[in-house]
Amino acid sequence: MGRLGRRGGRLSELAADLTRALAQADVSRLASRLASRVPVDASLAAESQLAAVSAVLRVVHGAPELLFIKRAELERDPWSGHMAFPGGRREAGDASLEVTAVRETQEELALNLTQGRILGRLDDLAPRNRVLPPIIIRPYVALVAPDVCLTPSREVAATFWVPIARLQDTRSITTYDVEMNGVRASFPAFRVAEHLVWGLTERIVRQLLTLVGP
Q1: Which parts of 24-140 fold into alpha helices (H)?
Q2: Which of 53, 63, 180, 65 is nearest to 121 (CA)?
Q3: Nearest-5° Cα angle at 182, 185 to 74
Q4: Is 141 helix (H, G, I), strand (E, B) or coil?
Q5: What sign does the CA torsion over 122, 208, 113, 32 have?
Q6: Which residue, of 56, 97, 106, 110, has the fewest CB within 10 Å?
Q7: Whole-angstrom Cα distance, residue 125 to residue 132?
């Protein structure tokens, strides 16, 4: 079989995988709700930067899983070492924040979201801690085939596929205590393996779970 035939066969398999994934009850409910809701846009201050992240889903053995990354330890990165979603700041050549999310996911994980499906977007978010950079983050929700391969860049220390059902389990909910500017603070968090998801990423997960739930 020629290269074109092999590629055509793979594209047909990919389309079939995505069709099956979209038929899964949680994913179908999520896609429908994303399509019908009007997401909240954040008010932009003059100094605000724009960024986008990708909340990537796949369906394995009939159950949806959500992709997390652990950011590498890098100097001058305020989110260094944190659990996060792939993403980053908008660049001058990005036609939209959706393009930013797709580009950053490709750069960080070699994962091409254009071969999957962008289901929609969530509400914009901004850091609540004034020590962090003034940034507006727009989360996009994407669906990919179950057998996608991830190749992390130097910005990514590890990747985790976590079942949505595990995040919905109350035993995954905890708090994260941290000292900021000499003040102790407690934040809601999710347990993912031996790590904690908190801050902006935790807020995105909560948005997503609200739309997935019955």
Answers
A1: 25-36, 97-109
A2: 53
A3: 85
A4: strand
A5: negative
A6: 110
A7: 13
> Mean pLDDT by 10-residue block, N- to C-terminus, for the chain (214 residues)?
52 89 97 97 80 98 97 73 93 96 98 97 85 84 97 95 97 88 86 92 97 90
pTM for this prediction: 0.90
Distance CA 157, CA 87 (A): 14
Residue closest to 14 by CA, chosen among 143, 162, 161: 143
Identify the CATH number of the domain defined by range 3-163+193-212.
Answer: 3.90.79.10
Q: How far is CA 190 from the centre of its chain?
A: 15
Residue 38: count other Cβ atoms within 10 Å of its Cβ.
6
Residue 49 in tokens: 């930067």
